Amino acid sequence: MIKKILTLITAFVAFSLTFAVVIIIYSVLQGPPIYDIEENTVIYDQNGEIISIERGIENRFWLELDEISPHVIDAFIAAEDQHFYDHFGFDFKRIGGAIYHNILSMNKGQGASTITQQYARNIFLTHTKSWERKINEALIALRLEIFQSKNEILEGYINTIYFGHGQYGIEAASQYYFDKESSELELEEAALLAGIPKGPSVYSPIQSETNALDRQSWILKRMHETGKITKSQYNDAVASDVNVITTASVDDRSSGQYFTDYVLNQASELLDIDRDQLEGEGYHIYTTMQPEAQKELESTVLETIPEGELQIGAITIDHHSGKIVALQGGKDFDKSPYNRVIQSKRMTGSTFKPFLYYAALVYGYTPSTTLESRPTSFTLDNGKEYTPANFNNHYAEHPITLAQAVALSDNIYAVKTNMFVQPENLIEAARTFGIESDLPAVPSLALGPASISPYEMARAYSILGNEGWSVEPYALEKIVDRNGNVIYQHSPEPPERLLEENYAFVLTHLLTGMFDTRLNGYMQVTGATVANQLSRPYAGKSGSTPSDSWMIGYSPEYTTAVWTGFDDNTEIKRTQDQRVAKNVWATYMEKLHADLPIEPFRVPTGVQGVKVDPITGLLEGPACEDRTKIMYYLKGTEPTKTCSEPSSS
């Protein structure tokens, strides 16, 4: 009898050992478990500060173990698996006890899962209580123990467990419940959080403060019993009040939402993945956003734009580097995420004229070139008459200079110039400025009937700001994956000279005229309403159509384009609505430059500044000493006559 029992025991042991060897060999052959854990994608400004956290389905951050408070680690080990560092994935003493209790109660309610088993379940399996799931969980846990260190398993566990309210992992939970990083958690806070995963719907302090504090107290007791904390620490922690904040600050999307959305779309296209996948892959996306510039732009829009349906699109480019430092695609992203800077094309009005006048300078114009400003009809190739009009039908009724025509935005002067230059050459000039949109080769092209995006117009003007050198605006600096690998790095192309520097400067100086009241004539200069706000040199051009209002301009440092209008092309009738673009531009540009030294536009050696009467275009003389200003000409093209006789104007 004894022999038979010994034989059976020997057979059982042999079978068990064989079975164990087979399981181990199978686990080794299977290799480490392969998984892809969703993790938040984080977006940074140009200073490396977080501006947005993009979630996939789950809100999750991944931290290295040494980035997590030791209190958190000790609390989880004391609460969930005090022998974690001593077993190979399974606590057989606890398993035996659990089996005994389950047999007695005839159910599977009693658990004895180690941290390794819980990690396996969280990543690979459902939480259904079945023997099949338990077996799969054990096999995966064994593979984890074979191929990962204890610290790697613990790190994965703490970063993947669910804390309720959509928060996965300790960092997301810490920020959600306490508005702090997990490395900053106090002992009592760590113990409270460690109690939630056992049953988030039961132990969340938001759902039940009593349950949460009861479990916190139990965990603190376990930490003391297992030697993780002293009696004094235990007493202090139990007596401490825990203030749950449940802040939404980690998902604060109130600043730079249009900018962030634009960058995410670019990154999605660049990486050839959809937005949902991008937002859950744990990328770190570094942008060119200048936080103060973005905040000033948004606050200016909020303060300036009136109530109603009027919309806005605005963008600022550092034209020396190409960095887009601020972008506002509309009045309110939450109400309308449509990005009017990038996606919308609107008629440009007179903001198109600088392309014309650059061509005119190349074709021989100077700031003193005069043309008649009076009602004029033009006969087109098809025999039809084209009769443009000035704003409110105001005309000089005598010749005016190019300098004054630019400052007053005289339409008759512009169309006559386009007929001289020829529309096909105006299109070529616009292409030189990087305008890619469709352009009609017609006399009225000078007045901006073509539809172009604010982004494209800002890029074109930034070339003037960069003294004629090419500018390629960009917002995406680099992308780093969750493993720290740089998978995209912006690499700027060497700048190319697109505009002849002397002509570019003369045009820039002409564009400062819209703010110079010395150029007032039969109308005020177009920037008269904002000129007294400006404290430094700016060049720019406003423009309007019945349904569009523009202001685009630049300093030696930045180029900003502002468009306002209604999405349905409703006519802009109210005076306050018509002035919004200029008001936003002027107020914002002053804020943007507030801490910068005042710098003039650099004068190239190929131009000459002389004192000229901007009304007649003649050199300073007895008849115009009180209204002359420095104007710039290509050397050799300066006026030679003086205004010795009183002007008839």
UniProtKB/TrEMBL annotation:
The keyword Cell membrane applies. InterPro entries: Beta-lactam/transpept-like, Glyco_trans_51, Glycosyltr_51/Transpeptidase, Lysozyme-like_dom_sf, PBP_transglycosylase, PCN-bd_Tpept. Keywords: Carboxypeptidase, Cell membrane, Cell shape, Cell wall biogenesis/degradation, Glycosyltransferase, Hydrolase, Membrane, Multifunctional enzyme, Peptidoglycan synthesis, Protease, Transferase. Residues 314-589 form the Penicillin-binding protein transpeptidase domain. It is found in: Cell membrane. It catalyses: [GlcNAc-(1->4)-Mur2Ac(oyl-L-Ala-gamma-D-Glu-L-Lys-D-Ala-D-Ala)](n)-di-trans,octa-cis-undecaprenyl diphosphate + beta-D-GlcNAc-(1->4)-Mur2Ac(oyl-L-Ala-gamma-D-Glu-L-Lys-D-Ala-D-Ala)-di-trans,octa-cis-undecaprenyl diphosphate = [GlcNAc-(1->4)-Mur2Ac(oyl-L-Ala-gamma-D-Glu-L-Lys-D-Ala-D-Ala)](n+1)-di-trans,octa-cis-undecaprenyl diphosphate + di-trans,octa-cis-undecaprenyl diphosphate + H(+); Preferential cleavage: (Ac)2-L-Lys-D-Ala-|-D-Ala. Also transpeptidation of peptidyl-alanyl moieties that are N-acyl substituents of D-alanine. This is Monofunctional biosynthetic peptidoglycan transglycosylase. It comes from Halalkalibacillus sediminis. The lineage of its organism: Bacteria, Bacillati, Bacillota, Bacilli, Bacillales.
